[in-house]
Amino acid sequence: MSRIAATFARLANEKRKALIPFVTAGDPSPDIAVPLMHALVDAGVDVIELGVPFSDPMADGPVIQRSSERALKFGVGLKDVLSYVATFRQTNQSTPVVLMGYANPIERMGLKHFAEQAAAAGVDGVLVVDYPPEESQNLLSTMDAAGIDTIYLLSPTSTDERIKLVADTARGYIYYVSLKGVTGAANIDTGDVEAMIARIKSQTKLPVGVGFGIRDGETARRIASFADAVVIGSRIIQEMEAATPETAVERVRVLVSGIRQAMDKRVEK
Fold first, then answer.
1. Does 42 reside within a domain?
2. How many domains does the chain have?
3. Which of 49, 124, 149, 228 is flagged as catalytic?
């Protein structure tokens, strides 16, 4: 059983939901990349989505765009990200790590070589925004061969046909983008999200996580009442932007700990 599958199985047995933070690798400084991953685990997260810095992150709003720009100024690339994961794995063998990003850095490295290096580093999953399921059979088969889960996105505009396609193709979990537009957008309507999650769950046995627009513990708690995972990115990066490099890790740990506590206090439906 993969680390991702084992994590969701454990959480289901505990009647708890996954907390999945997104951070951009190398932001705000390469020196804190690995300490930040460990701090997230200490704060109670279940899966880490690690963003690969990219110059044109078209699905991301200004907050995450700025985080990529900061990391790129340090020269952080895909090889560095894999190195961070490998270092993290020296002392953490249980927390799944998913790389989230865009096709260009992978294509530049070479798909097969990337899969080999990612597996060797201890990567558990990939979410490549611009590899749609209709055009990613090569990605999927290569990741499958390396033992890495390929995760796909669904959105409020996804049709029943697209939901079925993703349900048949995805591995690990499905990421539901709760808002039209980019990351860091406006507040979400949890009623609409709940209805869409029910549609998705009718087509798959995979866990379904919800991201975009979740900014506090109360919203995370409400989402956790019907989804299998809560994904938070822009709010975490904003916390680091408001900190100094010396205080960023601790500020994120405190923020995420509070969200974890709110989720665990949710009222079961």
1. yes
2. 1
3. 49
Give dist(CA 181, CA 177) in Å, integer.
9
pLDDT tens, residue by residue, 94-133: 999 999 999 999 999 999 999 999 999 999 999 999 998 9
Q: 0.90 exceeded by the pTM?
A: yes
Say which of 60, 124, 149, 228 is annotated catalytic.
Answer: 60
The verdict on residue 269 lying in a domain is no
**What's 101's domain CATH number?**
3.20.20.70
Please tell me whether residue 84 adopts helix, strand or coil conformation: helix
- Phi then psi dihedrals of residue 221, to 5 deg: -60, -45
Residue 60 among the catalytic residues: yes
Paired with 49 in beta bridges are 22, 98
Task: Tell me whether residue 49 is one of the annotated catalytic residues.
Answer: yes
Write out pLDDT tens, residues 68-100: 999 999 999 999 999 999 999 999 999 999 999
What is the domain range of residue 110?
A: 3-264
